[in-house]
Design a protein that fits this description.
The complex is a heterotrimer of chains A (336), B (218) and C (541). By secondary structure, chain A is an alpha+beta fold. Helix content of chain A is 38%, strand content 18%. In chain A, the strands form three sheets. Chain A has a five-stranded mixed sheet with strand order 3-2-1-5-8, covered by helices on one side. Chain B has one domain: Cytochrome c oxidase, subunit III, four-helix bundle (Four Helix Bundle (Hemerythrin (Met), subunit A)), CATH 1.20.120. The chains are: A alpha+beta (336), B mainly alpha (218), C mainly alpha (541).
Amino acid sequence: MPLDFPLFPEAASTMAGQVDAIYLFLVALSAFFSILIAGAVVYCAVRYRRRSDDEIGSNLHGSLLLEIVWSAIPLAIVLVLFFWGAKVFFAQSRPPADAIEYTAIGKQWMWKFQHPDGQREINTLHVPKGQPIVIKAISQDVIHSLYFPAFRVKKDVIPGRYTTVWFEATKTGSFHLFCAEFCGAEHSLMGGQVVVLEPEDYERWLAGGAATAQAPEEAGRQLFDQLACGTCHGEGDGGRGPSLHDIYGEEVRLVDGRTVTIDDQYLRESILTPAEKIVDGYSPLMPTYQGQISEENVFKLITYIKSLSPSPEDAAEANPAENAASAADEATEETL
Amino acid sequence: MSASAEAHSPELQHHFDSMEQQRSASTLGMWAFVAQELMFFGGLFTAYLVYRYLYPIGFELGSAQLDIKLGGFNTAVLLASSFTMAMAVWAAQTGKKKVLLWMLIATLALGAVFLGVKYVEYSAKIEHHLVPGYNFESDSPYAGQIKMFMALYFAMTGMHALHMVVGFGLLLFYIYHAAKGRYTPEYSHPIELFGLYWHFVDIVWIFLFPLLYLLGRA
Amino acid sequence: MSTLITDSSRSNYLNAAYGIKSWLLTKDHKRIALLYLVAVSIFFSVGGLFAALIRLELLTPEGDMVQPDIYNRLFTMHGVIMIFFFLIPAIPAVLGNFILPLMVGAKDLAFPRINLASFYVYVVAGILGVWALINGGVDTGWTFYTPYSSMYSNTQVTLVAMAGFIAGFSSIMTAVNFIVTVHRMRAPGLTWFRMPLMVWALYATSIIIMLATPVLAITLVMLMLDHSLHIGIFDPAQGGDPVLFQHLFWFYSHPAVYIMILPAMGVISELVAAFSRKKVFGYTFVVYSSLSIAFLGFLVWGHHLFVSGQSVYAGAVFSILSMLVAIPSAVKVFNWTATLFQGSVSYQTPMLYALGFIGLFTIGGLTGVFLATMGLDTHVHDTYFVVAHFHYVMVGGTIMGYLGGLHYWWPKISGKLYPEFWAKISALLVFVGFNLTFFPQFIVGYLGMPRRYHAYPPEFQVFNVLSTAGASVLGLGYLLPIIYLTWSMRYGKKAPANPWGAVGLEWETASPPPTFNFDDDPVVEHEAYDYHHRPEEPRVA
């Protein structure tokens, strides 16, 4: 049994300090109230102990003032905590605009990660220090939860729906990576390490495995050709399906009158279950690809389709404010 | 004990002081039961609303698979049974034992018609391969959504039908005792309470019918 | 009412009839309470056995005692049995069943036959649960999250969900009975605001049971359909929404937490008043705090879904509403503490449990605020921090309240006194063992150890060893009462009608009470806990 055990988790992200601050504040607050109440209980129990068998207590039965005071104080404290906690939570939920996108697929019982350049890893994730990283994740089977204790972030990874988690590592080293949502027999083994490297070491590490890596856009383009998506989704608007150029982030009207924003989730649904959200003016001709394309390949296709629209950097140069807003929208788009 | 000492109805249970207390206790109990029933169906209605919002087209297509004529007929049958049930309660309260008996029998008959029509509807769904988890097949591009609609259709109408069957069994019990003349104006609350239950089951159908059969039809 | 005290020859509910049939077919709420006592004790022991095996497995980080799929069954069955078959029925169906009619001065609950039926429904559910256990158990966690439970687990999900479904009807029956009894069967003079706080707590609990349990029932029905027929209501591969299950599940299961803790709070109010011989400080505020906990309990379920991808705005609403629960909870703790002030405090066993409860519930409640704080929950969600938190509330709260109440009313229930020395030893063991078991879990949880882990990184071992050590002390603490209470039924000293010198209608009738509870119909003339108008009667020390 290792005896040099830690009492406090390592803090290795920009978020860790903010979460720890709330935690330490609450620990102090809890200690204060627990000691206050325990002290009062012990004092009263001793001071007013029963001295004769037929003794009874005083006729004291309440005080409106005290009730108001000890309702108002907790109310004030929890309001502070609410706003503080919400502020940190909003920061955790909204990746900064310059975050680099990785992808993760959870399946019983492993994590499959892909780097922006196409490099793939299983159960281990190498990331550069000092760079905001957003992981777009989906599950292939049951609900999992991607948890990096040293970064103080966690997000459920759900089948059929993209969720994101982001962090910016501030310390090099190797830290735990867990699945936090119970997912079956080997749940406790579904994890590994996240390895934070200096940016130049990270580049070197990437270069070491580059031989097999293929950029996801490129892989997506090949898949797009292979599945002959282009026969219907041509460049112009005359095809049997809508054009896929310059559409990402736009709003479209559907045949049932609703409007949706074209984001990763909508692209995914349109590939797998195309009939459910048909763009106004088109017919449900496209076959379903549910069960025929792996989640990895859906990621590739989406990356390719996104590359057909102006990249975020270009948009950021053109109109930085709008871009920040759309990044925020994306973060809150996570349904229900 | 003095309140009830004068007239001890044979139906007064030992732990109540008076028939009023017994009646008001049972009535409140029945309302509490109806409240929990409401929450029970509430869970299903929530699921229905969520999926209807997610899949509006599939739900319209699914709704088109249902037989609006049979559904409408059944609605009329249930409304009629509510009327006969209300008559039965009135008869019990006013001591018209014969009317009570016949109204209960009429309610039973209407309930049986409802279940019979439901049987016909279900058989048609089985024939048309519309039963999720059993034989669902569809070549519509919206097959998945229609399947979800049908799953909820069976869950909701199935739960409703189950309540009808329970009511059916209870009715047999009350008919037996009504035939023996057990219910008097002083002891009419079993019939009143059963009436509450029966009306509740009817009201659930009054919500189910438009949600499942009517919404989204051109 | 002065001759009824210790006449051993008089008829009471225990000696009114003999034979197995007089027990199994009884409609007397007091006998039904005893039937429940036996049943929940059995389930508590089974659930405790699972806990012991879990703790043994976690002694070492490697997960080398049982296979992972066995471990998953262990913690699932521990949770299912403890929650559905022990914590939910324990205080209402045992103590509440026994004491509620006595406290309101009624001869029985409003619907004695439904009361007996609720017991048998509970037994059927229990047998189904045990049968599922023998046939392989279930491995989904007590939360049954879809699509794992509906589509992937090939264990007895349908059977266990059916057991939960049936057990729900048992609690609904009890709840309806309590609601009607409180409304319609109070003794003359017992106005709403003269009712003991235990009655208020049971009433608030019954309202929650009545409105929340059916939602769980229908959710479990949909889960069973999904698992057995694969119709896919919660299966994303078929267009279903797995997170909808979480919403429906927690719509019941968060209020269920208050179903478990509110009755314990009611017990604590009784104990604090009786052993301080003083009116509960701020009585009306304690009443309203119970009602507001019951009400708020319905609006906070979404705090279980902060990291499930629900919208941040929904999360914010659920966060603030969850925070508000802290206020009525704090009001209760402060009022109990203030009740001791200028009281006449004695330290018999029930009071030790009550004082323990106040301390442990304070920690359990405050750590609930940690979890309601969204930015912090992101880190501690689904870790051992959560495990520690709910055990502080459920074990430190509910079980302490249950044991305190059981000792307090034991003379009334059995007509015998329990051995005070052994009871104090056991209360001490429970308190020490409990803290040793669960406090380290807060630390290891913040370190990041996820819950439901069969194997874990070695640096977490120290805390797990401490937990296991504490669990063995706690186990001993729980074993003792089973032994000495059983012993006392035969060999204990005869209990007087009012061994504590407490006020309340239950202490104005004999121990044990006659079949119809009171020889003369009681009339209430004073407020609850009015020690300055204590009825004159001879007390036996």
